[in-house]
Specification:
heterodimer; A: alpha/beta; Aconitase, domain 3; 5-stranded parallel β-sheet; globular; B: Aconitase, domain 4; 7-stranded mixed β-sheet
Chain lengths: 419, 165
């Protein structure tokens, strides 16, 4: 009997030859990410009287939520995080100009196949797009890993999702994920690892894979993987840290899966998650025509360069509806630079969009807050009540293409007419 | 941690997410009382004040889903809640609760039988929940993890570990 990717990584990081689902191991992560929550972990270190880090090179600190600071309290908290990073010689420190932690760390080559990565953010699952096991923990536990280098982890069972066919024009991996979350439910993969397989997987770009492993969190996964392939190697070539060498990780042919689920990508259409739960998904036909006041193109799910480019392709030569605010928060500074170099930045501005600083933006309650009764269509991964301001506002989630089409029409609209 | 937890029940449904438990704008705080003032406030009038009359939360599936914010567990403790019993928990909330010293129990069998205002008694040593004359078993935590909860959370556990080295 062979092993899944999660089993192989957890065995390797806990010094075991093999592990099986249900076992509890002490695992040593390669990377511990803390974002804006860093100051809280610093306060835990002080509280427990610890002064020494297990290994400063395993820490990454990225100030991404509320960037730059908008209150004195934010500024003070960020100062604590910054001073901590400086005084402890944290090389992987990225300040408020850099962007969303997940995207910044992958762009910078700090994430490699087979790595174990924990961090103060549930969407750490995104690192599985490059074959790393990423999972979220709280700030106290981050402090604990800073000090001890390890944490207990239960080896998860794995679900295998087999993707066949090809996404039709105007349909993206975001639509695939909303389809899966809607059919499996918010805890459909609770405590599980998910691996994406099938002929269609190799055709999906790294950006699409990031969206998949990010959104997988919304069906309760512990971690999610797209097994590394030629595209992964190409993405990491020249990007990975010099101390690492590219070593793909894969499941054995006779690995044991708890469940196998085939999906035909060719049968999918644009999907929208309706208020106030991500699992509340509907095909576009059932929600088109819904008025929107704001369109938010942002978040670690869908504010990558490809996402901005898709939106720009639809918005080029067209105008955002006068009743809609199109807020674009690029996932990182690198993404903003690329959009600036290729003209995507200008296209989106000319169409009537506005840009904010790279970071989590409105998805974390920064610029782009909603008033009572307002409706936002967002490319983010959560539409929970009150997440973007008023608890009387409504948040719908979609792909960047659906967002762009809807921003033009002023109502939720099918992007396929633009293809 | 006490060996018995006793109190009146407030009952929630499925998928109570961490944005409902404590909205993101309050994550600038980490102290229990401050967070408790805003816990569950998105649910409308009466919240969170009315939860202070209860000691045990009972919930359906996937309690605490969403964000990895540890303050979800902290805010619940600030309300004076002594335990959460759910059909299932989101894994991030599950870890955070243990690390924050908030006792949590998975017991799907209890859910359909219990109503708001019922009295529950949770016997930790026997791994049983008592509701009137009925009892329900729940799985024990692994010993290593139980130790964290017994010491009142991961910070206390770390302090003990560091003092021992």
């Amino acid at each position: 009997m062979g092993f899944t990717i999660a089993e192989k990584i957890l065995a390797a990081k806990s010094g075991r030859t093999s592990v099986r689902p249900g076992e509890i191991v002490d695992a040593y992560p390669d990377l511990v990410m803390s974002h804006t929550a860093t100051w809280r972990s610093v306060s835990v270190m002080q509280k427990v009287g610890a002064t020494k880090l297990y290994d400063p090179d395993r820490l990454a600190v990225v100030l991404d939520h509320i960037a730059p600071a908008k209150t004195e309290k934010n500024a003070t908290d960020q100062q604590v995080s910054r001073n901590f990073a400086r005084s402890n010689g944290i090389n992987k420190f990225y300040d408020v100009d850099a962007g969303i932690a997940h995207l910044v760390l992958m762009e910078a080559g700090h994430v490699a196949p087979g790595d174990l990565i924990v961090g103060t953010d549930s969407h750490c699952t995104i690192y599985g797009s490059l074959g790393a096991l990423g999972t979220g923990i709280g700030y106290t536990e981050v402090a604990s890993v800073w000090i001890t280098g390890k944490l207990w982890m239960k080896v998860p069972d794995t679900f295998k999702i087999i993707l066949n066919g090809k996404l039709p024009p105007g349909v993206y991996s975001k639509d695939l994920m909303l389809h899966l979350i809607g059919s499996l439910g918010a805890d459909g993969c609770g405590y599980k690892a998910v691996e994406f397989h099938g002929d269609a997987t190799s055709g999906l770009s790294i950006s699409e894979r990031m969206t998949m492993t990010n959104l997988a969190m919304e069906m309760g996964v512990k971690c999610a993987f797209v097994p590394p392939d030629a595209k992964t190697e190409e993405y990491l070539y020249g990007r990975m840290e010099a101390s690492k060498c590219y070593q793909p990780v894969s499941a054995d042919a006779d690995a044991v899966y708890e469940k196998e689920l085939p999906v035909n990508l060719g049968a999918l259409g644009p999907m929208v998650a309706c208020p106030h739960e991500v699992e509340n998904t509907k095909p576009i036909q059932e929600v088109q025509g819904t008025r929107i006041d704001q369109a938010f193109l942002g978040s670690c799910a869908n504010a990558k360069y490809e996402d901005l480019e898709v939106a720009a392709r639809i918005l080029k030569g067209r105008r955002v509806h006068p009743n809609v605010r199109l807020i674009i928060t690029p996932g990182s500074k690198q993404i903003l630079l690329e959009a600036s170099n290729t003209g995507v930045f200008q296209t989106l501005l000319e169409a009537g969009g506005m840009f904010t600083n790279p970071g989590c933006g409105a998805c974390a309650g920064d610029g782009g807050i909603m008033a009572d009764g307002e409706v936002c269509l967002s490319t983010a991964n959560r539409n929970f009540i009150g997440r973007m301001g008023s608890s009387k506002a409504e948040i719908y989630l979609s792909s960047p293409a659906t967002l762009a089409a809807s921003a033009i029409k002023g109502v939720i609209s099918d992007p396929r007419e633009f293809f | 941690m006490e060996s018995t937890i006793q109190g009146r029940v407030y009952k929630f449904g499925d998928n109570v997410n961490s944005d409902i438990i404590i909205p993101g704008r309050y994550l600038i705080y980490i102290d229990r009382e401050r967070l408790a003032q805003h816990a569950f406030e998105v649910l409308g009038e009466g919240f969170p004040a009315k939860l202070r009359e209860f000691q045990i939360l009972v919930a359906g599936r996937n309690f605490g889903c969403g964000s990895a914010r540890e303050q979800a567990a902290t805010a619940i403790q600030g309300l004076g809640i002594q335990a959460v019993v759910a059909c299932s928990f989101a894994r991030t909330f599950y870890r955070n609760a243990i690390n924050d010293g908030l006792p949590i129990f998975e017991c799907p069998e209890l859910y359909p039988d219990v109503e708001e205002g019922d009295s529950l008694r949770i016997d930790l040593a026997a791994s049983k929940i008592h509701l009137a004359d009925k009892q329900y078993a729940f799985p024990q935590l692994p010993d290593s993890v139980k130790k964290i909860l017994e010491l009142g959370g991961l910070a206390n556990y770390l302090k003990t570990q560091l003092a021992g080295t």
